Amino acid sequence: MAYKKDSIFKNVDWWTVLLYLLLVICGWFSICGASYDYGDPNFFDFGLRSGKQLVWIACSIGLASAILALDYRLFDTYAYLIFGILLLLLFATIFNPNEIKGSKSWIVLGPVSIQPAEFAKFATALALAKFMGEYTYSLSNRRHLIVTLAIILLPMFLIIMQKETGSALVYLSFFLMLYREGMPGAILFTGVCAVVYFIVGIRFSVFPMADGVTPWGEFAVLSLIIVLTSGLIWVYCKAGRKLSYIILAVGISAIALGILFSFYVIPFNLVYMLLGMMIVLFVTLIVTFLRERIYSYLYISFFVIGSVVFLFSIDYVFANVLEPHQKVRIEVLLGMKDDPSGAGYNVNQSKIAIGSGGILGKGFLNGTQTKLKYVPEQDTDFIFCTVGEEQGFIGSSAVLILYLILILRLIVLAERQPTRFARVYGYSVMSIFFFHLFINVGMVLGLTPVIGIPLPFFSYGGSSLWGFTILLFVFLRIDASRYGNTNV
Fold first, then answer.
1. Is the dihedral of CA 422, 423, 428, 431 positive or negative?
2. Is residue 184's pLDDT more than 70?
3. pTM
4. How far apart are alpha carbons 188 and 180 in whole angstroms?
5. Are 383 and 464 in contact (CB under 8 A)?
């Protein structure tokens, strides 16, 4: 099919546009239900959040139309420039004197507040697509991998400096795209290990073993490192499977003898013994690498030492990096604290609201929890509890199905792209939407930490809606170009 400039709207994937409109409309009705009070003028009053959201929606539709009218090659040509401008904006926001709920991530322009972090997602996705779309790019190239990680981590670091940890964590979603593009499974495995170390280290470090001096958390993680190291050698070093068995056997035997001695002879902190074993294990791997010149041993030695350093940095991060309210939320989620009237209040009220909706819900504007304002942030981060209370299980399921169809559609669109630039950007969009959906719905249900990220197209706010709209419609514009000149 020959490409024509006036045929762009014909080539757009209208199924995705329809999903976008359905989600935006459902989101607006949810905002109405969450923010409307009996006695308010009407839903369309610009003094109410429902009226303001209509303005954001109208602007978003206009923004989407403008994006579709642009030349798709502009996104490739100016990807680094857009990324650089957003980085400068994120850096400047760190010194923003205005704080909103303890965060400096908002720029106040008169009656309007803009959050640059929402737009930085689109800029980062473009920069990644531009860099990874180069003909010579390879994730196995160390320089390429370092630059790729820098593109992801730099805006993440700047957002953390704004005390907006929740928005920063969204950038971890780009690793889903990297996995699709050939990122070694070992990196994903390392990420999973880091999560396990963090949870076990924080959750059980306060509990001593039967000897009264060894903390369960550190003991469990260090023991796990020995087992995982043995497994990594078995998988990645075929010629070293004998060493794998030796490490496992010696490790288990030493731990068993240490436990018996500490429990029945002289109590001592078994963590010190395990740290000594870590040093011996690290040295053994380095010597084996130098003797056999197999780089897998070197990488596994990095895994060992990195795991130990990460484990013992958890306490510092938990005490000095996370904000007090974030620490309490994690403690409540992990069952370390029971605080139904404090940090756990939002989640408890959200669960009550969703549970009270039953199968069919209480009906539009009939939610007692939302009408009485029991759920804080019920029209922003906790908007999904309004859906659960007013529309019930059926309505909540319908919304989740719409999101599922959108994510699956984005995967289909990404897979049909003729260039790596388009595919990488498409999977970045999908990954961001999936992360927001999973974490937001999870925290409303009490399954994930409350980190304060919006539900796409549902949560109140112009920055969020515009950011997601730009993210999605840039991809739709790039996808429409596959009918013509695909040399992007």
1. positive
2. yes
3. 0.80
4. 11
5. no
